[in-house]
């Protein structure tokens, strides 16, 4: 499958490796840092505004390769593409249960595990060696960072960030656009627009909106 990436930074490089591992080809990287469309070694580089023309020209699908959840959502909304125009990228060394459901635009990195009946929303990131256990519900625009664990039947709201090495115990809920800092252990529900840290995790900040709490 031919893929157009929106974004050309470190996260995009990781997603490129992810796609290549599955036999896909990145045929374009579009980013705000480019002012005109050029082609180098078979790959297009240019502004994000070129995405519609390249989809029509190349018949490719799209992944928004931006690590920041709020920025990723903003770009998806601006592009106005249908769900079917987005790809799903699962690294060949990831484990995804046949009964799990992955949303469009979502990426699952090497060593990650998505277990039975888990549901992952659109445009989310399950990063390297992260674990999403059975029956979890992970919303759109979520980032489960490297080495983080979301235990069975937990729910992660839209736009939430679970940082590296953090853990959420079974059946707990992380509210939308909240942040669980690295290495924390969530033993109780976390309200929306809230940042928690520590073992056990404690509230250190609350924001009024997802824009203010953009990660």
TrEMBL record:
InterPro entries: AcTrfase_PglD-like (IPR020019), Hexapep (IPR001451), PglD_N (IPR041561), Trans_hexapeptide_repeat (IPR050179), Trimer_LpxA-like_sf (IPR011004). SUPFAM superfamilies: Trimeric LpxA-like enzymes (SSF51161). It comes from the Bacteria. Coiled coil: none annotated. Residues 2-79 form the PglD N-terminal domain. This is Acetyltransferase.
């Amino acid at each position: 499958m031919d893929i157009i990436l929106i974004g050309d930074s470190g996260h995009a490089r990781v997603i490129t490796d992810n796609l290549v591992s599955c036999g896909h080809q990145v045929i374009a990287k579009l980013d705000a840092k480019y002012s005109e469309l050029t082609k180098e070694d078979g790959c297009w580089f240019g502004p994000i505004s070129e995405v519609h023309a390249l989809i029509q020209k190349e018949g490719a699908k799209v992944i928004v390769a931006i690590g920041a959840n709020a920025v990723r959502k903003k770009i998806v909304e601006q592009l106005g593409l249908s769900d079917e125009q987005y790809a799903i990228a699962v690294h060949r060394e990831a484990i995804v249960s046949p009964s799990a459901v992955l949303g469009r635009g979502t990426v699952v990195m090497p060593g990650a595990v998505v277990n039975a009946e888990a549901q992952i929303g659109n445009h989310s990131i399950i990063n390297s060696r992260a674990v999403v256990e059975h029956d979890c519900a992970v919303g759109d625009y979520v980032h489960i960072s490297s080495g983080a664990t979301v235990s069975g039947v937990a729910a992660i709201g839209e736009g939430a960030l679970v940082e590296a090495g953090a853990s959420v115990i079974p059946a707990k809920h992380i509210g939308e656009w909240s942040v669980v800092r690295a290495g924390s252990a969530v033993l109780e529900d976390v309200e929306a627009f809230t940042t928690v840290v520590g073992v056990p995790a404690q509230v250190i900040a609350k924001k009024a909106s997802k824009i203010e709490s953009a990660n």
